[in-house]
Amino acid sequence: MKKLILAVLILVSAKTFAQTGTDNQSFGQKIMSKLEFGIKAGVNVSNFENFNLPTDPLIGFHAGASVAYKFTNNFMVQEDFLYSLQGAKLKGGVLGTQDVKLSYVQVPIVLKYRTNSGFYVEAGAQTGILLKEEIAGFNTTDQKVFKKIDAAAVGGIGFQSKMGLGIGARYAYGFTKAGNFPTSAAINNDFKNSTIQGSIFYTF
To answer: Span 97-106, mean pLDDT?
Structure first.
């Protein structure tokens, strides 16, 4: 936590310095003046698409940081670095009734258009790296039953106030197969991750 606070203070100081002395800005200072940093956290509602077992959505969470480069005051590209807990609630079948929890590091990159009033839309793609899986009935230490890399298309809407505080909603639909179950498990590995995120964020 202390390291995170220190990193935020360094970024704020660098951005403040970059915004002073605009008449004699170096190339680096001009780049820094176009950057927008942020922190965000929120709720996930996730499930598996095209899974051959009955499921219900799982409630998880996400948290992390973001950086955006502003081409103009309205148009930008944004990259997030998020820890995301997602998965699904199994309702029966060969795996029984249990919560499947998947911990990812997600890195979405989106193009974002924000109006002068603060409303925005965004669209892009994300790559996820699986950190941990929790599923009973498998020794997941030796062999992961979910693929290490997960890719998805993302889109969202939201609002950011002039003071930097905002809310947003984003949907991520996987376009790579998520399963890595052995054939003996009789599970179709063609299913994909599907996640709705609701976030609160602050940018500076």
So the answer is: 97
